[in-house]
Write the structure tokens for this entry.
Amino acid sequence: MANEVCFRTLHLPNPGSLETYRSIGGYETLKRIVTEKVKATEIINQVKISGLRGRGGAGFPTGLKWSFMPRYYDGTKYLVCNTDEGEPGTFKDRDIIRYNPHQLIEGMAIAAYTLGARVGYNYIHGEIWEDYVFFERALDEARAAGFLGENLFGTNFSFDLYAHHGYGAYICGEETALIESIEGKKGQPRFKPPFPASFGVYGKPTNVNNTESYASIPFILQHGGQAFQDLGVANSGGTKIFAVSGHVEKPGNYEVNMGIPFPELLSLAGGIWKGRQLKAVIPGGPSTAVMPAASIMGATMDYDGLSKAGSSLGAGSVIIMDDSTCMVQTLKRLSYFFFEESCGQCTPCREGTGWLYRVVKRIVDGEGRMEDLDLLTDVSSNISGRTICALGDAAATPVLSFIKHFRPEFEYYIQHGRSMVTGK
Amino acid sequence: MLSQESLARIDRELTKYPDDHRQSAVMSALRIAQDELGWLSKDTIAFVADYLRIPAIAALEVATFYNMYELEPVGRHKITVCTNISCMLRGSDEIVDHLEKRLGVHMGETTPDGKYTIKEGECMGCCGGAPLFHINNKRMCEYLTPEKVDEILGELK
């Protein structure tokens, strides 16, 4: 089965409208929880049972994260949604906010009730203006219908939710950079601890989750945590939206059960385009290791399945490369991305990403030296684990994994000054 | 410096944040200013900062950090082409070549008549529709081919 959770309105006309969402029972779960005053501990327990793990890429158990929020706090607590999709190949949350925004709003309202948050922000990626406008309209609809605002359903529960528009910075996908950005500053990650649960937006307790995570909440509380867990496999409960891009016939988002074998997902996306052969896959966005065809074809798409096969699930951003792809040129583009997007705060990342890009570029320019491959590995290893946030590690991962799996292509490029694959 | 309409839009953004955190609205305020004036001069940035009652340097830091703000004048239609991996795999190079030939300028440049600026962008989070570009940070154009690019350029006044 597909499209059972976040995309459950997708087969209906006007999937993103309030009317459509209500026709499938939308906001009923919120209403029940709020009016019956369901205990927060009970809700968190269901989220734990569901096996939901952070869908933004880190895979941290959502129920556990929720339990970190201080229960008693004299002041405003905040709820933040991360719709700042900038990891290349990631475009799933965009489809949630434009095709089923109300499920996200309901999920956030349930989270706000559970965690005692009075105000929420949904941080939306800068480049998707039309979708931001659409989401703002959905917020207006929800407010007018009495699902956001003061004293909801005649109780003392109040929750205000706003959209905050980013303006072009990959780093703001990192939760503390995102918080800085909400405060109107440069998006530079904070030292942790303290974590957002104790020191988040304006220094107040803040819970940050990904769009897909929040949008899964209404399903979990409607059908029970176990029903969600049962859709997936051990350690990977529920469904996952895989954003499939690159060399397939039908790129797009596919919401399927966790644990789906990769070949099945590939065939949903129409298979490799132009009748070509699969060469490599980046299974979770460029901050996860590239996998050669042979290892991905035997893998299942879930946290354990991909980690056993030598990579990780990340945000489920599946980038498919066919046999016409030059891995050296591809790595050059990825390395440029991390160099461009490094926020500049930590020296190993700021300087190291520049080194990585310049060395890969010189190989592509025909000026590479054989010792460059060791240099790249060395620079990568010296960034990893030496920075405040994970961008440094993310920049190192493609370099290390591309060279590990496709070393002969790099050696050929250095020896001949041109690509082994394209001849150019 | 900004129209009443733009100021009203900034005021609306301010309602999203606590009164003692007006700086939170700086990103949208700069965006609104850029929408009206085309780009952000130092004076515009200072004006926005003043309006929000925050130090000018705080607004300048934001304007220089996020890459969708323009700190130099751009053409009437700024076309930002994504060339990141998913777009690259589906032929963004061909789109770039086509735009450069058709408009007679290179990436990062503006046509002499001031009508178009073309530039390279980072991942826009719409990779299923690759290759793609967006116009003036607003309109997303996906599933591009050289023919479709011509069609879109033909519509722009």
